[in-house]
Amino acid sequence: MSTEIQKPKVVVVGAGWAGLGATYQLASQGYDVTLLEAGNYPGGLVAGWKTAGGKSVEAGIHGFWYPYKNIFSLVKQLGLNPFTNWTRSSQYSPAGLEVESPIFQDLPRLPAPLGTFLYTQFQRLPLVDRLSALPLLYSVIDFDNSDEAWRRYDWVTARELFKDFQVSARLYRDSFEPMLLVGLFAPGEQCSAAATLGMLYYFILAHQPDFDVVWCRGTVGEMIFRPWVKRIEEAGARLLANKRVTDVIIDSNGKATGVVCGEEIFDADAVIFAVGVSGMQKIVSNSPSLQSRKEFRDIMNLGAIDVLATRLWFDRKVSIPRPSNACFGFDTTTGWTFFDLNALHDEYRDAPGTVIEADFYHANQFLPLSDDEIIPIVHNYLTTCVPAFRDAKVVDSSVIRLPRAVTHFAPGSYQYFLPTVTSFDNVLMSGDWVITRHGSWSQEKAYVTGLEAANLVIDRCGVGRKANIIPVEADEPHIQAGRSLNQTFREFTNSLLPNFWLP
């Protein structure tokens, strides 16, 4: 009499890019996977949903950048076509238009970062200020995404980094800090120099087309996650919403055997956490098992940043030069973006009026305000950027407050981030705040770390084929040569001189 082979049981906690990625890979390889999501639907903050009136809203708009090779590969594998064409973007201040960006891949390719420097169209920033960024290129060469580089630069603030390399005050104020406010979601004095270099290099400096971006033609939940979840369920995985994890069961050998959700227990041969910093902190605060390990207690030292997402429906069409726009200088420590959804989302393409998404990061001062107080502020800011909004009337709106929604890459925070592998042999981590040497950021990083965690489960269980993770594009030859020379010089000087970097 034959006996059925027992499938390894894996519990994945969190149904965003990381959790769905891990679940899809493992379910496709024959694992018994249960995906637990604390919210009402898969996707968490990224997915989006319908209002009571049937209108689509999101917890902020998310771009898909040229280097997102793994996400683009997934979407192709799923047979989806969710994205716009490559779009141009702009940057505004209260003084008006500051910067226009072209489609970089359409222009003759120059050695990085020369193309970014020459092709970006600055409207007001003098050339002498832009040239003051040249000494900063040494830090780009020196920061190679290694553990050593992260530890070396993580104790320095981004503001100190730019000051030490003699970046002009105007270039910092009008260019670099606005990038930080919408890229790392905090002002320069609150951002790690290591995270700053990693983010800037990945999205802007590594290769000329890296700043090119596409957008989802609707909410990510409707366009990507919903059909993806269907494929995941067809592969045999269980997706359970409204399941808030409260503990992990650890046996006498130090291995996880189950995940606790209130009165329910889900058996597990491996556990993958795929939640953000705030979600993980809630789990740790309730979990005696996780609290027993210092690495999990240390997560409580990490911070997160408030986000405000607004969507405004206007009574008339307003001509907006470019569909995606970043803004700075309106509030000292807050960056914001606005998007022309008539140009980006299918459902609004033929709408009689203009639909705008405006998202604010590091939005602490806005969250206590009422909707009736917030909407006029947003309307006024839009009018400053595009004066034609002055005559347009807001006929409907949505305001979503998201306290502690995104990771704060504060100076000194790297020591508290977890790698994929934890001290519990079969408890693995994934997400956009988890340490990885892949080099990616944001949604791509979350998805990649989910695949990395799934591959580790496959290694440990010896069942199935590992996911093929596409590496980031290799450094260009002149960058590789510069890094090699710098490493040789650093090793030589370290043998002769004391190390002046703090640990």
Question: Can you describe what's shown?
Answer:
The chain has 503 residues and is of the alpha/beta class. Helix content is 34%, strand content 21%. The chain contains 17 helices and 20 strands. The protein has helices at residues 17-28, 69-77, 114-119, 127-131, 137-142, 147-153, 158-164, 169-183, 193-205, 220-234, 277-286, 288-291, 294-297, 341-344, 371-385, 442-461, 477-496, and strands spanning 9-13, 32-36, 49-50, 56-57, 63-65, 89-93, 96-101, 121-122, 213-215, 238-240, 247-250, 256-261, 264-267, 270-273, 303-314, 324-331, 334-340, 355-361, 394-408, 427-429. The model has no long low-confidence stretch (mean pLDDT 93). This is Amine oxidase. InterPro entries: Amino_oxidase, FAD/NAD-bd_sf, Zeta_carotene_desat/Oxidored. Residues 18-458 form the Amine oxidase domain.
Q: Which key terms come to mind for this protein?
A:
3 domains; alpha/beta; 503 residues; FAD/NAD(P)-binding domain; 8-stranded mixed sheet; 20 strands
Which spans have pLDDT < 50 for at least 5 consecutive residues?
none
Q: Span between N and C termini? A: 62 Å
Rg to the nearest angstrom? 23 Å
Which shape, going by the Cα principal axes?
Answer: globular
Q: Could you give the count of β-strands? A: 20
The number of distinct structural domains comes to 3
User: Please, what is the average pLDDT?
Assistant: 93
Strand order of the largest sheet: 8-7-6-16-17-18-15-19
Strand content: 15-25%
The CATH topology of the largest domain is FAD/NAD(P)-binding domain
